[in-house]
Amino acid sequence: MSHFTHHPAASHDLVVIGGGSGGLAAAKAAARLGASVVLIEQAELGGTCVNRGCTPKKLMWKAASHQQGLREMESVSLTDVPSFDFATLRRRSDAKIDKLNHHFEEELEQAGVRLLRGRAEVGEAGQIHAGGEVFQPGKLLLATGARPRMLDIPGGELAATSDDVFGWDDLPARLLIIGGGYIGCEFASIFAAFGSEVHLMTDGERLLDQFHAPAVDCVQAGLNKQGVNLGFGIKPTQIDFNGTMFKVSFDDGSIQYADRVIAAIGRIPNTDQLGPGLQGIKCVKSGALAIDTKFQTSIPGIYAIGDAADRLPLTPVATRDGACFAAQHFGDNADQIDLNLVATSAYTLPPISQVGRLEADHDDGETISNLSSDVLDDGTAAHSFFAAAFSDNVLNGVALINHAGPDMIAPFAALIASGATAEDIAAATGIHPSFGEETVGR
């Protein structure tokens, strides 16, 4: 029996729980298609990406890129590197995020979406309780995102997460990062560029296991060049803090000391505290909700997108899926995007970007282009890298490393989608001298 106080339920076509990229896209698109929509959000609009992820990280990466570039230019002509103020960067980042939050609120209002601030809970009868109100939606969309995974060891709560890092006002002299995925590698590269002594430890045998192995080798070489100390195949067992310094013990008997510790060991979908109405809902191993091609969960009338759903946990996917959901259920229908055509980047210095399939176990062809070189040969930055995989002479995947990589990778997704052949790519001619000319005309 439900423990909720009984209130008359308001009827709406759609209730969206979560105002991140996916929830915002779905709510606005559905409202523009004529649906009555309520969006419930207990924190800032924009979700992880805008507030504690992509946006502040990209601003931080940009500053780190400039800082490293200035330092590397000493080998060419620059003799006096300007000072860097980390606190000023944080304030400017906060101002940018605040502006985006207000922009999202205005967009919802213009689309006719009602925004309700508060924590939502799904009742046993499918009613949504939030802010003292009760809703009985025609459809419920869960877009609740994910949160950082904590270290499950004694003292694990002492480690900062990515959420915490964007609130720092000062740079740690010595930084220890645990985890070799996107977040760990990005922070390692960024803070090394800022001048911190960085140590990155992972229980895996390689970094960035989602990316093409030869490209990751170049990322690792770049981190080494930045002075990042890497450790593989070890796990932390305990964290202690004496009020000044962190002491981290590992399962191989080694000990690391640091001014700050970051746990970058993945994220957990926010699907475990949404109320009794979701009891028994089917989840995959990660905790994300299992969905079908219409974003339907195992409970009729309840749908999921974004990091809460079993899809790629990337902002562009959440945004596209939100619009797709609205079209499927309130418009003229639409198909889910092909995840094989979703490009991704890790913002190391320089970034690594990839789309499609490159590894041997996913591809029946071979990688016919595998370039690693310092194009301008000026002694700056890490080597650029380009690899293209073909299956039956048709482009199957691309990986590249270059400062312009995140801007370059999307057109390769379009080439894969269009069935471009090796001859099609060889027919193009790039600008000289540039990294781009190394990706075509071969």
Describe the SSE topology.
Elements: E1 10-17, H1 21-32, E2 37-41, H2 47-52, H3 54-72, H4 86-111, E3 114-117, E4 121-122, E5 128-130, E6 133-142, E7 146-148, H5 162-165, E8 174-178, H6 182-194, E9 197-202, H7 213-226, E10 229-232, E11 236-241, E12 246-250, E13 255-258, E14 260-263, E15 267-269, E16 302-304, H8 315-330, E17 344-346, E18 352-356, E19 366-373, E20 384-391, E21 394-401, H9 405-418, H10 422-426
Parallel strand pairs: 1-2, 1-6, 2-3, 6-16, 8-9, 8-14, 9-10
Antiparallel strand pairs: 4-5, 5-6, 7-15, 11-12, 12-13, 17-18, 18-21, 19-20, 20-21
Helix pairs in contact: 1-4, 1-8, 3-4, 3-6
Active site: 432
Family: Belongs to the class-I pyridine nucleotide-disulfide oxidoreductase family.
GO molecular function, one term: flavin adenine dinucleotide binding
Question: How would you describe this protein?
Answer:
- There is one protein chain.
- This protein has helices spanning 21-32, 47-52, 54-72, 86-111, 162-165, 182-194, 213-226, 315-330, 405-418, 422-426; strands at 10-17, 37-41, 114-117, 121-122, 128-130, 133-142, 146-148, 174-178, 197-202, 229-232, 236-241, 246-250, 255-258, 260-263, 267-269, 302-304, 344-346, 352-356, 366-373, 384-391, 394-401.
- The protein is of the alpha/beta class and 442 residues long.
- The protein folds into 3 domains: 10-148 and 268-339, FAD/NAD(P)-binding domain (3-Layer(bba) Sandwich), CATH 3.50.50; 156-265, FAD/NAD(P)-binding domain (3-Layer(bba) Sandwich); 350-439, FAD/NAD-linked reductase, C-terminal dimerisation domain (Enolase-like, domain 1, 2-Layer Sandwich).
- The strands form 5 sheets. Strands 1, 2, 3, 4, 5, 6 and 16 form a 7-stranded mixed β-sheet that branches.
- Helix 6 (182-194) links the parallel strand 8 and strand 9 (197-202).
- The protein is globular and about 70 Å long.
- The N and C termini lie far apart (68 Å).
